[in-house]
Amino acid sequence: MVIGSGFLDQFISAETANEIVGEALNSLPLEGKRVLILIPDGTRSMPMPLMFSLFEEHLSGRVAALDYLVALGTHQPMTDAQLTHLVGRSVTDGKVGSSTIFNHRWEDPETFIQVGIIPEDEIHELSQGHMRQDVAVRLNKLIMDYDHLLICGPVFPHEVVGFSGGNKYFFPGIAGAEIINFTHWLGATLTSFDIIGSGYTPVRAVIDRAASMIPKPVHCFSLVVTYEGLAGLYFGSAQEAWKAAANLSAQKHIIYVDQPYQKVLSIMPELYDDLWTAAKGMYKLEPVVAEGGEVIIYAPHIDEVSYTYGDIIDEVGYHCRDFFVKQWERYKHYPHGVLAHSTHLRGLGTYDAATGVETPRIKVTLASGIPADRCQRIGLGYLDPHSINLDDWVDKEDQGILVVPRAGEMLYRIKKQ
Known about the structure:
The protein is of the alpha/beta class. The protein has helices at 14-26, 48-59, 80-87, 120-126, 177-190, 192-195, 202-211, 238-252, 275-278, 280-283, 310-316, 321-325, 328-331, 336-346, 372-377; strands at 3-6, 34-39, 65-70, 95-96, 99-103, 112-118, 135-140, 148-154, 157-158, 162-163, 218-225, 230-236, 254-257, 261-267, 289-299, 349-352, 357-360, 363-368, 381-382, 401-404, 411-414. The chain folds into two domains: 3-252, LarA, N-terminal domain (Rossmann fold, 3-Layer(aba) Sandwich); 256-414, 2-enoyl-CoA Hydratase, Chain A, domain 1 (Alpha-Beta Complex).
């Protein structure tokens, strides 16, 4: 059963959100239990201060412990100042009152516990024949210290899994490298162009199968958020709450245009602080860029490719999928999640192994604080961000130019004729 509601033409008030959260939490036997809530980091639009207050209101005094784990995946740990902004309460040494907010320590091998293995035959079936290998399922062992796990996060079109949210807060949110690399490369082989916003995907099937191995009860709050407000709030199992939110997200977060554009200026908000996260400005716009066209990622505030994997990307560069597939022996030792990111940002293209010629479908240019020589080294175009006068770009759709303010969460597609 799913508790909650969502709307295409209105937003959920704080009072209604309180009613939904209260009904949802009262449906669970949480008295005296230790509860851990998985939450997003600062790269997702999310009314986390509201949800944090509601959890405190409805669970404080009822549960033995109420703590939080930031599902970082492989993003950078959040500081106390960043956590304070995230939850709307003063955070000191990771503490808010009696609650602790933990950063997922993905870089520490001691963080993890293995909860199972998905055997190769099952992977072959789940991946619709694209992969055949055993996949170890490792998660942050902190979950073993709690009686009940809750997920709380938004759902958006997503380049790896179709739509974000749900069990994705476990995988990659608090998962080990094996399943992170596997699922991201599976998504890359299918291509972001085809998988983003496409519903229930083979990657989602693998993630849900892995989540079935978690030896703790799990429930989920899935939110549908726009810049204007909270459009949907659903509670239930991770699969069912996600499904309800994904159905609404498909209607709220996809913008359909009449024709492709030759140039797209993708303006990235400060929500994203490196290219690894700001690459969403490419993923979400690629479907409406004409053959031979260009996406310009405009982010003057960004001066780093990736705080986690920058050195590896400097070695590998950005390439289309077939560049790696047709030279697999050369690249297979690199983290497959990094290779996946590379193909997602570079987009569709071809690679001729006989001639060594790569032909991307479109051009990707950075107008950021990343210098020209580094852009050239990693295979991207460069444009001085100070040379861009935004007034010169707007209202030129009839000239084949699209400007997307606050890019990264809305998916653009061409209307079917």
